[in-house]
Design brief:
This protein is α+β, with helices and mostly antiparallel strands and about 475 residues long. The chain has 2 domains: about 290 residues, no CATH class; about 130 residues. Helix content is about 25%, strand content about 50%. The strands form 3 sheets. Strands 1, 9, 10, 11, 12, 13, 14, 21, 22, 23 and 24 form an 11-stranded mixed sheet that branches. The N and C termini lie far apart (about 100 Å).
Length: about 475
């Protein structure tokens, strides 16, 4: 009797010790309470090279849209003894010649001149009417996204003979005005330059394009992933005019992120973007992408890996109902809620790693702990057989790289004649993603990936 009592006591003592040890280990695996602090990580900046082409026809379109009717009005005659009005009578035509802009501008000019002497206030005025087409040769310069020109009038082609108003009658003065056109040339050219300066400021359009490209968009419904670009600095070279196109190199310094879960906010702020002029820009785009996966999102995806699968040996089988992941002491804890021959929770603890062949994040050096309502802990040893455990481990994978590959396909529409706004077109190509490393925070698994490629932006036909 004493022997039987001793045996039962020893059994329960062993059971309690094992249970207490397991409970303590499970307690150590449980996550700390979460907070609402944002996920913080260090991200390498990316540099996106974007050559920009602005067609001369686009500048012509913008110039004609902004300049119509009366384009210049100087109603003060006492400052320089000249009063002048200039009307544009037909569309301006632009062309390129030896790197300069040639403008053909149909104009009507009315001018009043005050002449005489200060002595006794003896003054008289004369009105002159000019109607014809002016040809200007302009040296262009695009600085800080603003087109400026320095123009010289090359030719006048009169549609009507220049006249002067005398005693209420218009008297032709072509033979007089042609030799004296130098009086008008500098003033008219300057007014046209000022009009171009006011009209051809492309900076707001460029920032608008960058803002459109900064809007987070979904790259994969399956993985609930979003791509986000955060601009930091914008670089631009001097513009060159050739073959009726203005070309320049633009470089965008930015951060790139892939977020898994809810749609991230667009943090674009045009006032915080620095614009810097540079002499040259590297041809190659280098992108360092951060893939951020919250543990909640990772848990949801890994749970899907176990759907419809049974694990076991003979008549003893289990199914995984739910998976939860969290970070603990530099490792990942994977909690599997199971039903079947065992009802309880299986805990796997491991370190995230990367499989270059399958392009997956997996959990290496897995250890296990069981919390179960079964009578004896050791009765679940069958579950830890090498073949069963390896099958379970195979499903404990979180596929970030295939997610990005799918995201790459989703990016194609944004790299193939993508038009974020009317008259602006983006084209480009991205190379394969290359894995760098995985880091853990208390809220997320963060994978660092790099890629390279090229982008081009064409401006033609904006409203």
């Amino acid at each position: 009797m004493k022997s039987a009592f001793f045996t039962v006591s020893l059994f329960y003592t062993f059971f309690i010790l094992v249970s207490c040890g397991t409970t303590n280990k499970i307690e150590a695996l449980r996550p700390s309470p979460s907070n609402d602090a944002p996920i913080v990580f260090k991200n390498k900046t990316s540099f996106v090279t974007m050559p920009i082409t602005i067609s001369l026809s686009e500048i012509e379109h913008q110039l004609n849209k902004k300049l119509s009717g009366l384009i210049y009005n100087d109603s003060l005659i006492n400052d320089d003894k000249t009063e002048m009005k200039i009307w544009k009578t037909a569309p301006i035509l632009l062309s390129e010649k030896d790197g300069n802009i040639v403008s053909v501008i149909p104009l009507k000019i009315w001018a009043k001149f005050k002449y005489g002497t200060d002595f006794l206030g003896l003054y008289d005025t004369r009105e002159i009417s000019l109607n014809g087409t002016i040809t200007l040769n302009s040296t262009p310069q695009l600085t800080n996204w603003k087109l400026t020109t320095k123009s010289k009038i090359e030719d006048f082609a009169w549609s009507d003979s220049p006249t002067i108003l005398v005693a209420g009658k218009k008297i032709p003065i072509t033979y007089i005005i042609n030799p004296t056109m130098r009086i008008f040339k500098e003033k008219i050219a300057k007014k046209i330059d000022n009009a171009i300066d006011r009209t051809c400021d492309f900076k707001p359009h460029v920032l608008n394009v960058i803002e459109k490209l900064s809007v987070p968009f979904m790259t994969s419904e399956r993985y609930e992933s979003w791509f986000k670009m955060v601009p930091i600095e914008l670089y631009v070279t001097e513009a060159k005019l050739s073959k009726s196109k203005i070309t320049m190199e633009m470089g965008l310094k930015c951060n790139m992120q892939t977020m898994v879960g809810q749609q991230p906010k667009n943090g674009f702020d045009a006032s915080k973007i620095t614009l810097k002029p540079v002499s040259s820009i590297p041809e190659k785009t280098t992108a360092s992408v951060v893939a951020v996966s919250t543990y909640e999102s990772a848990s949801s995806i890994v749970t899907k890996n176990f759907q419809g699968q049974e694990f076991g040996s003979g008549s003893r089988k289990i199914t995984v109902q739910k998976v939860a992941l969290w970070h603990k002491d530099g490792k990942i804890v994977i909690a599997l809620d199971v039903l079947g021959s065992i009802n309880g929770t299986l805990y796997l603890v491991g370190i995230p790693n990367y499989n270059a062949i399958s392009k997956e994040i997996y959990f290496d050096q897995l250890e296990y702990v069981i919390n179960t309502k079964s009578i004896l802990i050791k009765s679940a040893n069958w579950l830890m057989q090498e073949t069963i455990l390896s099958k379970i481990q195979e499903n404990c994978r979180y596929s970030i790289i295939p997610n990005l590959e799918e995201g790459k396909q989703s990016l194609k529409p944004y790299l193939t004649n993508y038009s974020p706004m009317k008259g602006v077109f983006v084209n480009g190509v991205l190379n394969d993603f290359e894995f760098e490393k995985v880091e853990l925070t208390d809220k997320a698994i963060i994978a660092f990936i790099t890629t390279s490629g090229k982008l081009k932006i064409k401006v033609d036909g904006m409203e």
